[in-house]
């Protein structure tokens, strides 16, 4: 998918208060974010639905893709563009049945090329590798090396997403290694000027 290229921002409730969520994401899109993932581990279904619905509307209006983390049912309910699945987040085929043939389904593959190959065979539209650098969001995450992106690029025919501790200072090396998208949390939403922070990373893509 040629549209899967550029800055991919992921929300974090610890960095973005509820009242600022939509405005923060709007600023990230204005700075060049091409994809937005709503990620919130809260248990209040009404709150999650309200946020997801507002972000889905915003992304449609601003021309950004909108993905829900972990929850195909919520993605279907708000007509998101797709869903991102981790190790324990369910089956690709079930998500495809629920969301339809045009949905974007991404899968976390950590530092495992074989997992990525299996995900692509099962119908994943993109695969994500990382953490490439120490991450304050997931400090215990397994680490991946940039060489994994080069190896994956040689054998997979889907876009590759790099995640984990990525900043405007270290992201260029991952783009060079083969990342089609850089998934970023803190180095966008951890700044007062979210738009400028997003632009610094978006500009890493030629």
CATH 2nd-level architecture: Alpha-Beta Barrel
Give the full name of the CATH homologous superfamily. Aldolase class I
- Range of strand content: 15-25%
Helix content: 25-40%
**Strands ordered across the widest β-sheet:** 1-2-3-4-5-6-7-8
Q: With helices defined by DSSP (H or I, 4 residues minimum), what is the helix count?
A: 9
Number of domains: 1
CATH topology: TIM Barrel
Distance between the termini: 17 Å
Largest β-sheet summary: 8 strands, parallel, barrel
Report the radius of gyration as a whole number of Å.
Answer: 16 Å
**H and E string:** EHEHEHEHEHEHEHEHH
Q: Give the overall average pLDDT.
A: 96
Shape, per Cα inertia axes: globular
Question: In total, how many beta strands?
Answer: 8
Task: Please tell me about this protein's structure.
With 206 residues, the chain is α/β, with parallel strands linked by helices. The chain has helices at 21-30, 45-62, 72-77, 92-99, 113-121, 146-155, 171-177, 186-189, 194-202, and strands at residues 6-10, 33-38, 65-69, 82-85, 104-110, 126-129, 160-163, 181-184. An 8-stranded parallel beta barrel has the order 1-2-3-4-5-6-7-8, surrounded by 7 helices. The chain is globular, with a radius of gyration of 16 Å. The two termini are 17 Å apart. The model has no long low-confidence stretch (mean pLDDT 96).
